[in-house]
Amino acid sequence: MAQYFSFKRLADMTALSLTENRKKVLMQVLVMAAIIIGFILFMTLMNIGTYGSQPYYHVTPDKFEFDPLWNSVLIPMYVMSIFGFSALSASLSMEWMSTPNRRLNTLMIPATQLEKYMARWIIYVFGFFIVFNIVFLFADYLRVITTPVIARINDIECVSKPKPLLSWVDYAFSHESNFRDRGVIWMLISMLLAFQSLFVLGSSIWPRNSFIKSAAISTVLILVFIFTGVYFVENIFEYGKYNYPRADYFGEHFGIMAAIFMGITLFNWALAYFRFKESEITQRW
Question: Which of 7, 18, 95, 204 could form a disulfide with 272 if both were Cys (CB 3.0 to 4.6 A apart)?
């Protein structure tokens, strides 16, 4: 077993990958942070007037006060950016195999193919989610700190107080029925992982221009999946007899959908590994 896989060699391989690519990885993180921070502060400036209106309370007896930008800017931006940046990150996971010289250097490293693959998976899949959330939370807290300053410059009194997005997360998990249902959470996470896994697979097949090629193929696959899903929902789950979405009706199926997405994710990760395992110094296709 130690000849095939070793946690020590995996740790060494991960450290080696980060050390050799530290400038590139740091630049990628800084670019992502600059885009997220810049857009959040720009949208705060464009919507600063909303903080001068009446406090935005959620319609509940406890009168929980919302930040006006949560629903209009921050939550949509978080969802779109985590999908977009996760795809970009996954597309870079096999960039080190893009030329014959780089493939030769990779194949000559004293570690198994599984350890090499997992090292890049740790950096560009698992590590990405940690770094992304840290960057987004930092940008959000920066928004909270700077909003009163921007409001004063624009002669606006902050009647509605800026609050960090984590306050909304804490409230949603405590009070919103959809978020108390862990099936919904697992479905959303598995959906994101399945989407990203398409780009991991694409990176192992096309190390060069992986993002563009993977995005084109993924668009087709996602459209096929959506139309197939609509067919199953209308004909098997008999959703067509309802005239509006019903969370209680679909609640029992969230776990099934999460399992399907996780199955797709594991399949793509495994396929990407076997494609990487068969890598040759001269790319034949």
Answer: 204
